[in-house]
Amino acid sequence: MENFATINADISDLMNDISDYLDQTQRGIMIDMSTLPEKIIRIQGRVQNAPRDDRQELTKFMDQVMQSLNTLSNEIQLRYDSLTRDIGALENNSHKE
């Protein structure tokens, strides 16, 4: 079994990745998040297999990861909606000319 510190360090790295993705999304930069689901699943498995004493604390950290993912998802949706409105406005303007 892995120890608490190793799993916690990987959760921290994942949180940093999500924070970077959020920052880039807020700045309007297209990003590749294709590796994110695999990282999350891998770490969740490690948390579930952690020693019983560590599992509860690690689960709390994973809850924070999920909250951060929700924030990222909301930001992506906001950017998508904004882009959709901008494209619609451009299309309307081009049809008027």
Features:
97 residues; 84% helix; 0% strand; rod-shaped
Please explain how this structure is put together.
The chain is built from three helices and no strands. The protein has helices at residues 4-26, 36-48, 52-96. Helix 1 runs antiparallel to helix 2 and helix 1 runs parallel beside helix 3. The longest helix has 45 residues, at 52-96.
Based on helices, strands and strand pairing, what is the structural class? mainly alpha
In helices, the fraction of residues equals: over 70%
Overall number of strands: 0
Give the helix tally: 3
Tertiary shape: rod-shaped
Radius of gyration: 19 Å
Strand content: under 5%
Whole-Å distance between the termini?
67 Å
Secondary-structure blueprint:
Layout: H1 4-26, H2 36-48, H3 52-96
Helix pairs in contact: 1-2, 1-3
In a nutshell, what does this entry contain?
With 97 residues, the chain is an all-alpha fold. It contains 3 helices and no strands. The protein is 84% helix and 0% strand.
